[in-house]
Amino acid sequence: MRSDSPRSCARAFVVTLLVMAGIFDVFSASESGYAIWPHAVVLVLGFAALLWPARRLPDWLTPQLRTGAPAVASLLFTAGSLLLGSQASFGPAETVVLLSLLFVAVRHCPQPWAVVCGVLNGAALLGTPARFYQDDMSSLMAFMMVALVLIGLVAGLAAFLRSQDYRRAVAVVETRRAERVAIAADLHDFVAHHVTGILVQTQMARMMATTQPENLDTVLAGIERAATEALASMRRTVGVLRDTGPDAADRRPVGDLAGIAELTHGFASPVQHVTLDRGPTVPDDLPHEVQAAAFRVVQEALTNVRRHAADAGEITVRLRHDGRRLEVGVTDDGRGGTQLPAAAHGGGFGLVGLTERVTALGGDLRAGPPAGQTQGWEVRALFPTGRT
C-alpha cells in the first residue's frame, strides 16, 4: 500500500492537470466563438485512451486502437476546418494528449502498428496549428517547427525505451535458456551417474546372489547409497526449478577436488578397482569453478566406464598440477564390453556438454585410447588455474 501511494498521487496530479487543460481548451474555444463539440470529441477520446485503468481494459481496446482513434479524430477536425475554411482553435490539452499517445504508440504498439499509429499522432499534432493560422504562414511554420522538435524528442525517447525493453526481453530469454541448459547438465552429470551405478550394481547383485552370496551385502549397500545420492541430487535440482530467488543457484549439486575422493571410493566394486592418484603439488584452494569442472570430468568419465566398459578391472583417476595448469585424467583398461540395456547407454551428449564446460574455462578436453596401449580409454582435461 505504501509503495503504491506515491504512484497514485502522481497519477492523480497528472489527471488533474489534463482535466484542467481540457477545460481550458473548451473554455477558450467557447469564448472565441468556435464550436466546442469537435474539441470535446477529441479530448474525450484522448483522455479515455490515456486514463483508462490498465487492469480494466477490454480485449478489444488494443494499443493501436487507443492511440489511433484520437489521432484520426484530430485529423478529421483539422481537415474539416481547412475544407470549410472556418477557423478553429487548438490548445495545450490536445497537444499533450497527442504527444502522450505518440509515446505510447512508438513504445507499446506491435509492429507495424507502432509506425502507423506514430505517424498518425505526429501528423495530427503537426496539423493542429493549421486550423487557426490558415492565412498566417509564418506563424504556422513556426508552430510546426516546434511541433516537429517535440515529436522528434518524444518519438526518440519512446524508441529508445522500446529498444531497452527488447534487449531486456532478449536477456531474460537467454538467461532462462542458459538456466535450462545448466539444469539439464546437472541432471545428466549427477542423477544419471547415480542411476547408472544403481543399474550396474543391481546386475552385479543378481549374479552374486548365486555365486557369492556372502558379498551381496556390500553391493546392496552401494545400491542404497547411490539411490540416496540420486534422490538428493533430484531434490536439489527440483528445488532450483521451483525457486527463482537469488540463492537458488547456490543449491545446485556441486563438486570439488575433495569430492573426487568420495566419488572414486563410492565407484569401487568387487570386480573393479579404482585408484586415485593425486599429486602432492595439487593445491586445495584452486578456483571453485575449476574444482567443480574437474569433479564433473571425473564423474562423466566414471559414468562412461559403467556404460561402455563394464569389463574394466583397473581404473585410475589422476590429478596433477604443474604450477600453471591442473591436469585431470581418468584411464581404464576395458575393452568396451557392457551388459547395460541400449536405453542406458546415453545419448552421446555427456562429452559434448563436458567439452563446453571445460572450454568455457579456457581448458582443453581429449578422449581416446591411452598413448602406447592397445586397449582401454582415457579422458584427459587441462585447466588453466592462473597460479605460478
TrEMBL record:
Keywords: ATP-binding, Kinase, Membrane, Nucleotide-binding, Phosphoprotein, Transferase, Transmembrane, Transmembrane helix, Two-component regulatory system
UniProt keyword annotation of ATP-binding present: yes
Record-annotated membrane-spanning stretches: 12-30, 36-53, 65-84, 139-161
GO molecular-function terms, A-Z: ATP binding; phosphorelay sensor kinase activity; protein dimerization activity
SUPFAM superfamilies attached to this UniProt entry: ATPase domain of HSP90 chaperone/DNA topoisomerase II/histidine kinase
Catalyzed reactions per annotation: ATP + protein L-histidine = ADP + protein N-phospho-L-histidine
Annotated EC: 2.7.13.3
A GO cellular component entry from the record: membrane
Domain Histidine kinase/HSP90-like ATPase, residue spans: 289-387
EC top class named in words: transferase
PANTHER family: NITRATE/NITRITE SENSOR PROTEIN NARX-RELATED, NITRATE_NITRITE SENSOR PROTEIN NARQ
Protein name as it appears in the record: histidine kinase
Natural source organism: Streptomyces sp. SID12501
